[in-house]
């Protein structure tokens, strides 16, 4: 079967989205950040509510690594929110301001990670300098220690070029945080939203893939048996498939998940992934299984099947060699339509806190809980929505090519 341009575009879109599920995690996000996504104290040093780096910003985040180096940058209205140091070394910071003053912070012993805002020694040095400019203890609730280093005498930002000198006994990484950070910015806790998006996407896609595969397997088994045999069990399975196909999936899925799960932290539902996948697969297998049964009923009365049976072929041989031939292409086409629907279903269940682990639904819900939409941080919601749309469009283009080529015939 030749693929036309639409199908090729569809395959490209599907592959781009599925990279979130198949690419090793450490190639997408730093392992340490991924492991600490739900551990909020880890993110204390990171900027809060930062914009993505691809949007205009007043001060872009700067990073540098080395031993005894300097960083020069301009401040124009927006001041850095924090300076973070990572490594294992004794570090001393010297900040040369455009007004000719220099601020010496440290030395401090860094063992892992620290920052001006979180390290008592560095923060005290920043506060002491701020007092010399007239910023007393009453100013501390209004500014972070780092922000005070970039203020002038009159309560305004001291604009101009700054030089940050880093003196260290061994290599360290220094990050000067601005109002932008990462591909998707940060939330109100300072968490890198790209990390959350990848974790949520990986979980959503893998669960959806497992559910979709189970639907195909269950539907094939039940449909083949119900269509090929005419026993009481076959009649019972036919009725079961018809009933499952008529049930409302979402409310019944929520009811069953609630029944088979327990209440976890923050009132979320805790349920094994295998149990969740099986519940959703059973609820979604009805229509597909009934369609498979219809294929089997039509195929088993054809002449070549009767001839094979007359030659002594067994049931398994007939099912494998003659019945499955028109069913498998249909199963693949059904999968292409089913998978994006399951992704949406999993996201909806996650939005209602009905399934465990991070997913795109819980990712969107977290944004609403932090008032990101009202604060204009639209990129938080754009990422998962666009990704799900691209996945749906990709499968739609691929399915359209299959039907036009007569795969379902």
From TrEMBL:
GO cellular component terms given for this protein: plasma membrane
Localization terms from the record: Cell membrane
Biological classification of the source: Archaea, Methanobacteriati, Methanobacteriota, Thermococci, Thermococcales
Keyword Transport: yes
Spans traversing the lipid bilayer: 9-29, 205-228, 240-258, 278-296, 327-352, 378-399
Gene Ontology biological-process annotations: transmembrane transport
Alphabetical list of InterPro entries matching this protein: BP-dependent_transpt_permease, MetI-like, MetI-like_sf
Top-level taxon of origin: Archaea
Protein name: ABC transporter permease
């Amino acid at each position: 079967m030749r693929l036309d341009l639409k199908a090729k575009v569809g395959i490209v879109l599907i592959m781009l989205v599925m990279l979130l599920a198949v690419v090793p995690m450490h190639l997408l996000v730093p392992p340490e950040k991924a492991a600490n996504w739900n551990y909020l104290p880890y993110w204390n040093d990171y900027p809060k509510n930062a914009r993505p780096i691809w949007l205009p910003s007043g001060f872009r985040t700067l990073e540098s690594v080395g031993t005894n180096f300097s960083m020069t940058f301009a401040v124009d209205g927006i001041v850095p929110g924090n300076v973070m140091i990572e490594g294992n070394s004794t570090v001393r910071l010297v900040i040369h301001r455009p007004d000719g003053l220099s601020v010496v912070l440290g030395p401090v012993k860094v063992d892992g990670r620290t920052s001006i805002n979180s390290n008592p020694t560095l923060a005290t040095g920043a506060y002491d300098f701020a007092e010399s400019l007239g910023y007393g203890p009453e100013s501390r609730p209004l500014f972070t220690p780092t922000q005070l280093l970039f203020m002038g005498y009159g309560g305004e930002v001291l604009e101009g070029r700054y030089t940050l000198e880093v003196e260290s006994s061994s290599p360290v990484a220094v990050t000067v945080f601005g109002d932008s950070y990462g591909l998707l910015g940060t939330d109100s806790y300072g968490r890198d939203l790209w990390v959350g998006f990848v974790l949520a996407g990986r979980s959503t896609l893998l669960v959806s893939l497992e559910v979709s595969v189970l639907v195909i397997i269950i539907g094939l088994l039940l449909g083949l048996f119900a269509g090929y045999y005419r026993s009481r069990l076959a009649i019972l399975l036919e009725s079961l498939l018809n009933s499952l196909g008529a049930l409302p999936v979402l409310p019944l899925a929520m009811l069953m998940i609630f029944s088979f799960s327990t209440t976890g932290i923050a009132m979320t539902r805790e349920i094994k992934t295998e149990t969740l996948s099986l519940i959703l697969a059973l609820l979604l297998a009805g229509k597909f299984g009934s369609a498979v049964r219809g294929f089997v009923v039509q195929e088993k009365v054809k002449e070549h099947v009767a001839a094979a049976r007359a030659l002594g072929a067994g049931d398994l041989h007939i099912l494998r060699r003659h019945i499955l031939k028109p069913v498998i292409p249909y199963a693949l086409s059904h999968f292409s339509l089913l998978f994006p629907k399951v992704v949406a279903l999993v996201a909806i269940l996650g939005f209602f806190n009905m399934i465990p682990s991070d997913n795109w639904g819980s990712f969107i819900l977290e944004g609403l809980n932090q008032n990101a939409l009202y604060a204009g941080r639209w990129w938080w919601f754009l990422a998962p929505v666009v990704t799900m749309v691209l996945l749906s469009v990709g499968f739609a283009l691929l399915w359209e090519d299959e039907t036009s080529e007569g795969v379902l015939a």
